[in-house]
């Protein structure tokens, strides 16, 4: 079965960096686009970044563009989200997602940006 496991979250100061990982299994990873989403308290889940099967990438919101970078390692069946210059508004639970026959989600990893 499809499994997505995020890691790398934590508490970081304003302006700091974190690298999130999402290790996957149960599907042919190299064939699928992957996405990162986040959900802040009291807000809807929003997609943050996408990386295609060929490595083309994009970020969704102006608020993260230029600070967040998504990448993938097909040999490790893993995607990453490098987050730099973190701000308090980046505080959220971050999820990875893949759509194969349906949407699959990981359990999420908490990122807290604090002064």
Produce the secondary structure layout.
Elements: E1 3-7, E2 10-13, E3 18-25, E4 34-39, E5 46-51, E6 57-59, E7 68-73, E8 78-83, E9 92-99, E10 103-105, E11 109-114
Parallel strand pairs: 2-11
Antiparallel strand pairs: 1-3, 3-8, 4-5, 4-9, 5-6, 7-8, 9-10, 9-11
Walkthrough of the structure:
This protein has 115 residues and is mainly β. It has strands at residues 3-7, 10-13, 18-25, 34-39, 46-51, 57-59, 68-73, 78-83, 92-99, 103-105, 109-114. The strands form two sheets. Strands 2, 4, 5, 6, 9, 10 and 11 form a seven-stranded mixed β-sheet that branches. A four-stranded antiparallel β-sheet has the order 1-3-8-7, with no helix packed on it. A hairpin with a 6-residue loop joins strand 4 and strand 5. The radius of gyration is 13 Å and the shape is globular.
Structural class: mainly beta
Instruction: Catalogue the unreliable spans.
Output: none
- Calculate the terminal CA-CA distance, rounded to whole Å: 40 Å
Roughly how much helix do the residues carry, as a percent range? Answer: under 10%
Question: What would the average pLDDT be, to the nearest integer?
Answer: 95
DSSP helical segment count:
0
Global Rg: 13 Å
Features:
seven-stranded mixed β-sheet; about 120 residues; globular; mainly beta; four-stranded antiparallel β-sheet
In short:
The chain has 115 residues and is mostly beta strands.
């Amino acid at each position: 079965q499809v499994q997505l496991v995020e890691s790398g979250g934590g508490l970081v100061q304003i302006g700091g960096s974190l690298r999130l990982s999402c290790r996957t299994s149960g599907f042919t990873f190299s064939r699928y686009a992957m996405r990162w989403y986040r959900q802040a308290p009291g807000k809807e889940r929003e997609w943050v970044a996408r990386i295609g099967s060929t490595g083309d990438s994009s970020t969704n919101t102006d608020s993260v563009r230029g600070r967040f970078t998504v990448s993938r390692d097909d040999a490790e069946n893993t995607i990453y989200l490098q987050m730099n210059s973190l701000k308090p508004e980046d505080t959220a639970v971050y999820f990875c997602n893949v759509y194969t026959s349906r949407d699959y989600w990981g359990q999420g990893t908490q990122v807290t940006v604090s002064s």
